[in-house]
Amino acid sequence: MTSSSPSFPSTSANMFVSFLAMGVLVVAAVGNFNQDFDITWGDGRAKILENGQLLTLSLDKTSGSGFRSKNQYLFGKIDMQLKLVPGNSAGTVTAYYLSSLGSAHDEIDFEFLGNLSGDPYILHTNVFTQGKGNREQQFYLWFDPTKDFHTYSVLWNPQSIIFYVDGTPIREFKNLESNGIAFPKSQPMWIYSSLWNADDWATRGGLVKTDWSQAPFTASYRNFNAQACIWSSGSSSCSSNSSSKSWLTQSLDTTGQARIKWVQQNYMIYNYCTDTKRFPQGLPPECSLA
Ligand SMILES: *[C@@H]1O[C@H](CO)[C@@H](O)[C@H](O)[C@H]1NC(C)=O
Ligand SMILES: *[C@@H]1O[C@H](CO)[C@@H](O)[C@H](O)[C@H]1NC(C)=O
């Protein structure tokens, strides 16, 4: 289990949020990687192709690679399509996540743990609030994530954080601030992704190592779409159109609740909320409230 945070390219900058002004700005959110993202590391291993419609990350024995959004977001419905490293991807991790900065940062994580050809990827998720994570849930997927692009979404609004795979909700982290549990709501986050070698823990707990004869390993991204509040110099403006503004108030309806239950019953392979061995002095409070 990966209770420690993976080796994200980190920065120690601290952020002071002086005030938050919400305004509404109508923006058509047409994704273009040149416009929306910066390649942040990997020395040429990350590439923006097809006039900004496609981005690829690659990993070889020397280095992985990564990118980060130009904008910071404070709430949003953020979709990205990913096609994961095909074939023998054991030892590789593709992380796609939102995060703010600093030791009390907030973070919403998707991480895809590679595997031997034909063996299932694990989708690892986590939520950090005020620097505290340890909220892992892991899933198998109901499709091969390396054959085609699939849509991975985060809905982050003041009521909850919901993770979606192809529109199916797989996990919800509710705002339980009234019960004293921190919820991300004031630190703007960037969107990050990286592909790196984590064969010390990723595949079967580190038993299966990266086969470098298969390198370079490549993951692909397309169709980024954000209906979101963009943070800029102390205030935020929300992209929306009249038919889609609903993301800000959206919650799981009964169909969504049934879908989440279906995923959790059939595809969840780890849930911190049932790991009594790990939390001998009691499960985290949100586990009994959710
Ligand atoms: C890899 O495949 C093995 C065997 O099916 C499985 O136990 C494991 O959960 C899979 N995923 C990872 C990332 O280890
Ligand atoms: C408004 O948002 C909805 C939902 O994302 C989208 O389907 C629709 O095309 C958007 N309309 C315009 C005019 O951008």
UniProtKB/TrEMBL annotation:
A Pfam family annotated for this UniProt entry: XET_C
Compartment list: Secreted, Cell wall; Secreted, Extracellular space, Apoplast
Keyword Glycoprotein: yes
Post-translational modification note: Contains at least one intrachain disulfide bond essential for its enzymatic activity.
CDD domains listed in its UniProt record: GH16_XET (cd02176)
Top enzyme category: transferase
Main localization (coarse): secreted
Every GH16 domain range: 10-221
Gene3D superfamilies per record: 2.60.120.200
Highest taxon above the source species: Eukaryota
Record-annotated membrane-spanning stretches: 12-31
Enzyme Commission code: 2.4.1.207
Keywords: Apoplast, Cell wall, Cell wall biogenesis/degradation, Disulfide bond, Glycoprotein, Glycosidase, Hydrolase, Membrane, Secreted, Transferase, Transmembrane, Transmembrane helix
Family to which this protein belongs: Belongs to the glycosyl hydrolase 16 family.
Function: Catalyzes xyloglucan endohydrolysis (XEH) and/or endotransglycosylation (XET). Cleaves and religates xyloglucan polymers, an essential constituent of the primary cell wall, and thereby participates in cell wall construction of growing tissues.
Name of the protein: Xyloglucan endotransglucosylase/hydrolase
Organism of derivation: Hevea brasiliensis (Para rubber tree)
